[in-house]
């Protein structure tokens, strides 16, 4: 954090969304593009000037002022928007630091039901989460060009809709919250198991997802049991981040991790929050996933039979091929590798480009004593997009098949 590039990266992940939200409140949601561009320009300016001039005493305030000035320059040149200039001038730098309400409102606006669900996800990940188009495409298992088109259409709708940047009414709030939760979990998942790039884990994305989840908890209207369950789930899974990679940055499987390196404070907080989430009658998919995370965190080895039962509950609440894949892994720990393989082969057509599926099949065939079939699946996995650490992991497993 003492290097300018490190400070800028930290601000991008932890402050850019707040500043975009604050500027968007002044400009109006129809000018969200301008708010994003102004912050991007300010970040670029910081990367150019801080190495020579030094890091300012208040980097976040500097970034806010630079973004504000950039937006004001654009507005001055646009005669039709001159009425916005006084609203920008009135903004104070400290508003960027306390713009959490603006961020929450912007998240909820990005998840407006008039937008298709996939567009809600893409827009929120881009605007509030700070993910790039390629990262969003990997998280959504789709193509970057498709994501780019969705973002263009979603921003066009925002410009033309005239929707205010304010909390929706009670009738609309709950459905918006569900969309926000789906986005935050995608953001967390991309950090927990990076799909592209040079690192296996991106802790800043996990931290950002947890921070945004806490914004929902801080607002009484959105402090709901399923929100508590998701934040608990992210805390419980996030507690393992220090042990998910070795000294070389390579992936470690759950049974290879040093549990002494798990963050006990996060586990305790996640457990308390999960208990609060279970005080009412609501039972969401996030409740079940948090219960699975607790099973992994409280016993070694885990109670795999109970985990299989919990995945059955999860599939009843929210069927998905990824949940079936995870159930198959748990089932293989109860009934053997062949049972897991049969489950996975039944869903291969549903996950044609999902790197984890052939990787798990490779591991199970190796356990079943068939290294030739295992190698075939590892080669399939290596042909799909993945992070460099996962590629090294798969290459080592392929080499093990040859031995």
TrEMBL record:
Cross-referenced Pfam families: DUF6596, Sigma70_r4_2
Record keywords, A-Z: Sigma factor, Transcription, Transcription regulation
Limits of the RNA polymerase sigma factor 70 region 4 type domain: 107-158
InterPro entries on file: DUF6596, RNA_pol_sigma70_r4_t2, RNA_pol_sigma_r2, RNA_pol_sigma_r3/r4-like, WH-like_DNA-bd_sf
Keyword Repeat on entry: no
Domain DUF6596: 176-277
Record-level GO BP terms: DNA-templated transcription initiation
GO molecular function: DNA binding; sigma factor activity
SUPFAM superfamilies: Sigma2 domain of RNA polymerase sigma factors, Sigma3 and sigma4 domains of RNA polymerase sigma factors
Protein family per UniProt: Belongs to the sigma-70 factor family. ECF subfamily.
Name of this chain's protein: RNA polymerase sigma-70 factor, ECF subfamily
Originating organism: Amycolatopsis lurida NRRL 2430
């Amino acid at each position: 954090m003492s290097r300018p590039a490190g400070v800028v990266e930290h601000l991008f992940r932890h402050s850019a969304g707040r500043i975009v939200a604050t500027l968007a409140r002044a400009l109006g949601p129809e000018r969200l593009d301008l708010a994003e561009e102004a912050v991007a320009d300010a970040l670029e300016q910081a990367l150019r000037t801080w190495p020579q001039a030094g890091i300012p005493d208040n980097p976040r305030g500097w970034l806010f002022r630079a973004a504000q000035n950039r937006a004001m320059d654009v507005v001055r040149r646009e005669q039709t928007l001159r009425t916005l200039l006084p609203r920008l001038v009135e903004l104070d730098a400290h508003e960027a630091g306390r713009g959490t309400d603006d961020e929450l409102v912007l998240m909820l606006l990005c998840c407006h039901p008039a937008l298709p669900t996939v567009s809600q996800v893409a827009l929120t990940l881009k605007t509030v989460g700070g993910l790039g188009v390629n990262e969003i495409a990997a998280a959504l298992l789709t193509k970057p060009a498709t994501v780019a088109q969705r973002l263009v259409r979603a921003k066009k709708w925002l410009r033309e809709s005239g929707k205010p940047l304010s909390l929706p009414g009670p009738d609309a709030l709950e459905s918006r919250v569900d969309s926000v939760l789906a986005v935050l979990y995608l953001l967390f998942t991309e950090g927990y198991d990076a799909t592209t790039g040079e690192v296996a884990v991106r802790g800043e994305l996990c931290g950002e997802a947890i921070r945004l989840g806490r914004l929902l908890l801080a607002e009484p209207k959105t402090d709901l049991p399923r929100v508590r369950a998701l934040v608990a789930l992210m805390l419980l899974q996030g507690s393992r981040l220090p042990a998910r990679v070795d000294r070389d940055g390579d992936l470690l499987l759950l049974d290879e991790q040093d549990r002494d390196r798990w963050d006990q404070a996060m586990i305790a907080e996640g457990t308390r929050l999960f208990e609060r989430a279970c005080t009412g009658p609501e039972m969401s998919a996030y409740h079940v996933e948090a219960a699975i995370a607790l099973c992994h965190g409280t016993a070694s080895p885990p109670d795999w039979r109970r985990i299989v039962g919990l995945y059955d509950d999860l599939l009843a609440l929210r069927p998905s091929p990824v949940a079936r894949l995870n159930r198959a892994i748990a089932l293989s720990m109860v009934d053997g590798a062949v049972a897991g393989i049969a489950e996975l082969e039944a869903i291969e057509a549903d996950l044609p480009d999902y790197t984890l599926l052939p990787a798990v099949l490779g591991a199970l065939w190796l356990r079943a004593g068939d290294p030739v079939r295992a190698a075939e699946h590892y080669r399939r996995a290596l042909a799909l997009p993945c992070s460099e650490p996962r590629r090294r992991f798969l290459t080592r497993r392929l080499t093990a098949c040859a031995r």
